[in-house]
Amino acid sequence: MSLQWKLFGTSAILIAFVVILVCSSIDYLAGRYYMRLVEEYSVSPLGVHQMFLTALHRYVDVAGACAIVVAIAVSFFLTRRLLTPIHQMVDFATQVASGHYETRLEVSSRDEISRLGVALNRMAEKLQRIEQVRRTLMSDVAHELRTPLTNIRVQVEALNDGIVNPSKTTFESLLDEILRLVRLVEDISRLARAEAAAATLRLKPASLTDLVQQILEGFSARFAEKGIAVEADLPIQAGWVRGDSDKIAQALANLFQNAYQYTPEGGKVTVTTECERQSTKLKVTNTSAPISAKDLPFIFERFYRSDESRLNYPGGTGLGLSIVRELIEAHGGEVGASSRSGVTQVWFTLPTLADGKHTASATRQSNRVR
Q1: How many angstroms separate the CA atoms of 168 and 160, rounded?
Q2: Cα–Cα distance between 32 and 35 in angstroms, integer?
Q3: What is the pTM of this model?
Q4: Most buried residue among 100, 212, 215, 300 by CB atoms closer than 10 A?
């Protein structure tokens, strides 16, 4: 049985119950009222009582029948009107399940069903974006894999055909391409975990100061190798945030790796934090060639690298900042970047710990590291 007939049957049963209740009440009240008239006006109860009840029942029956017809008609109309958007939602869900994520519901009111329609439209929009990201990711992965695989294939075929003699240089070139593939696969795996980070976050008080110092210590040898000066200015009041320490550390490592990769020899990297209204902002600034205005909005996109960066800084996969964005947004934070002549700054925000009692003990040792 369809929902329409269930609603209609429920309304009909309710109407019948009300009519029966009214008739029974009238019978009871009419009898008492008639006996009162007999006592007050000395009217003979014989015959007249029955005539009174018969007339009363006739009027009640006619009025009840009209009320039932009107109620059934109104109930049927309202039921159909109520079920129309539900039928539309069923069709909508069927189309979305078939992969037509561009489908949308028309929402014209503000009742509960309309709010459900708005929620379904948002769901379809998110599914559409996810599908678009999936297709783009597959295309980008295929593109990124094609170059190293082609290089490996060409060199192996050349070795096999005797065109190129086995040498240390040839094997080093093959090893570089294989390591590039390994880095790409590892970054794709990290990105997948970062996209699912919101479901696995272990939120607790975390010392951003300690995490920055810990990650910087791990990068100190590499920075020293290129002669890069590192300065970290970490105010005491910006020491604690609410987040997952492991995932924040991963985001910091990717930011420092990005700074290391694009800072020239003898350059400088500066790490600063500042407290905002309800968040803490961490900024990593490095000397580098400026990012063009057309490239800057896309540096957090997957596999995005400008032609200039591909030429001057080969070896990156273009996933580092994408991982940072996924990890930070999973915490409810934001990411951004700016670039001007000779300086590039990448930043993110994290929710500030409501209870600041941990701050002093975590950052008492040093709030300025060089």
Answers
A1: 16
A2: 5
A3: 0.56
A4: 212
